Amino acid sequence: MASKQTRSRQRRAAAPSRSHTGPRVLSAATIAAAVLYPPVTAQAGVPVHTGLPAMPAAAAQAPCLPGTVTAADQAIADQLRPSMNGPRLGASVNGRSIACARAIIGTVQARGLGPRAAIIAVTTAIAESTLHNHAVAYDHDSLGLFQQRPSQGWGRPDQLVDPEYATNAFLSSMLRKYPGDSWMTGDIGAICQTVQRSAYPLAYTPEAHDAQLIVAKLWTVAPSVPAAPAPAAPAPTTVPAVPSGPYQKALVATGTELGALDGRTDLALADWNDDKRPDLILVKGASAATGRTEVRIMDGATDFATLLLTRSTALEATDDRHAYAITDWNGDSRPDLMVVQRSGTASGHTEVSILDGASAFRQLLLKQAGTALTATDDRHRFAVTDWNGDSRPDLVVIQTSGTAGNKIQVQVLDGASNFQRHLTPTIVTTEAANPDHRVAVTDYNNDRRPDLVVMQASVTADGRTRLTVLDGAANLQRRLAGADTAPGVSAHLDLLITDWNTDRRPDLMMVQKTGTASGRTELVILGG
């Protein structure tokens, strides 16, 4: 039977969940903390950020468990560290982190909940506090492992720095919002966000991998905590498997400094400022100020927090008949903008214009060149690559639906001829056609031959985006690789391919342009 003190704690822990209602406004202390204590890195020299305000590692902290951090805690941290790669905690895990995780897991066990509840709670605590029990508020009045706010009904300040109370408060809120054990299924990051209502909803999923590792290690050795009433349904007896393989782990999860973007803003990636980091290029069909096609470039080195360029181009307004791609057309090591007009041209053919990056897209390198293609439509996607190794960018045209054999078809136009001739006959791939498929061209296996990546976006919360890679060396007739991403709806996201962490493996960027809790464009990069 729970003690009187424990029962009192549990009643107080049932306070309504209102921790992060509305956008987070950073205080001066929070901004200073972010400058003085940069986020941890998942790989040496490769910074990764979640968009959450950084907390000073040296801030006043309350112990998570009585006594000091044990040698066993430090040993577990040392064992887990090589496998930890989340943006918030990752390789900085230490004995204090493990001690705080033990306190959370012990409370979950005492409440009669299973390992998945512990994973959800630890995921949240990693994202919110990097498993630091903050006794001083640096973001509004947020305190403790879960950064719960007294002003939002979570409890008194002294209660919120008590890991047992704070964990019970989190669990009580989760059980209210997910009745009937519905928290047992669905995306872990989405469950964390529903409880916390954070201004940074994408911050939780990238930490689930590390939380699973910690819970798997501690579940059988977690300390005993005074028992709380158990839920009606039995808890599972096994810890979920830790995901592995490509596109399971986030390298970056962040809100950009961009507001919501409309449907006529297309995205691309290229190294604009030659710092060896991919920058995000946004092409808007018509600027409200000038009525011309507009380009904005966000700096990848700052996780897209800094604007490198805003410029109206030499082109009049473009519309849904146009597609965009980035390439170095003239070999000056500056990204140029290719604009493809599918239909409505004077020639009756698909036409290409190329704007010079060195002039900030104010000058045309190629103007409305008619190609060997007749008019195309929105079933056709365009990419640029050096298909035949002549150091000239070629135009790859991928038809994703409406083909005779119901297979994705590819045509390649020779850049050396200004796209006046085909380099190959039409390639009929092995992949079924689907108008919802996204496609990209990249050298997936580093054989200097362009490969085709077909991305099948998911439509349900527990779905997975499926990537299939067709081998360019086999004329796209052989499947080179296949992978499913971590769970999560992606049908409404823009999907881009890039090598973010310079490991020569293509990574997947998923961009949400509208509908985010923060009101900003947000993105996640999954490591390939």
Overview of this protein structure:
It is a single chain. This protein is α+β, with helices and mostly antiparallel strands and 528 residues long. The protein is built from nine helices and 22 strands. It folds into two domains: 71-218, Lysozyme, CATH 1.10.530; 249-527, Tachylectin-2, Chain A, CATH 2.115.10.20. Strands 3-22-21-20 form a four-stranded antiparallel sheet, with no helix packed on it. Keywords: Signal. Residues 1-22 are annotated as: Disordered. Residues 1-44 form the signal peptide. It comes from Actinoplanes xinjiangensis.
In the predicted model, the low-confidence regions spanning at least 5 consecutive residues are 1-51, 55-59, 221-242
Calculate Rg over CA atoms.
Answer: 26 Å
The number of strands is: 22
CATH superfamily of the largest domain: Glycosyl hydrolase domain, family 43
- Alpha-beta content class: alpha+beta
Q: Helicity, in percent?
A: 10-25%
**N- and C-termini, Cα separation:** 50 Å
The total tally of domains equals 2
Q: What is the third-level CATH name, the topology of the largest domain?
A: Tachylectin-2, Chain A
